[in-house]
Amino acid sequence: MEQQNVRIFVGFDPKEVVAYHVLVQSIIEKSSVPVAFSPIALSNLGGIFTRQRNALQSTEFSFSRFLTPYLSGFEGWSIFMDCDMLMRADIAELWALRDDCYAAMCVKHDYQPKIDTKFLGQTQTKYEKKNWSSFILFNNDKCRALTPDYVNTATGLQLHQFKWLENDDLIGELPVTWNYLVNEYDYREDAKNVHFTDGGPYFEEYKNDDYAEEWFAARERLLFAQQRA
């Protein structure tokens, strides 16, 4: 049976609550297909996600994101997204790129971060496959290795470098415009989903970055409520 809606799991962190809601708004207002959202919030994962926080984690969902296939019942497809993103295109365009040959699909970035410190003074870690896991299309049935036990015990690199797959041939490649790294890459008008990976416009030091005006405009639309005439 064809999946009736696009399941989207978004990382949720109390340090940047507004990011989650603006991203969701940007997806809803551009989508031509039904969408279903689930926040990956630690407060909702009691008894499922039990690992201790790592000092190198920049967000609460650094590792819990890999529970997406489990939370989807290992059925169909699901999308995981970091919250510090802004959708600029119809999510149906991405959904149409699903390929059952792969267990997961992502943008295969190949870059070295330009900065050593990102939002709230956190260390910008550098490793192979950096930012691949910030935006993933999961073919859930082929990701059964990602049990709660594995996600709770595997190393950070095992998770973020997709070591839970038999080989890298199972990772499909998405166009870079679907996870376009603000500041790391030059401005592109055709970027479909932008990622404020250094820090979102809601942090004072990043409020003038590329695409920030669009983010603030989406926030204003989020706050809209029609008043009595």
Automatic annotation (TrEMBL):
It comes from the Bacteria. GO terms for molecular function: transferase activity. This is Glycosyltransferase. Gene3D superfamilies: Spore Coat Polysaccharide Biosynthesis Protein SpsA, Chain A. Keywords: Transferase.
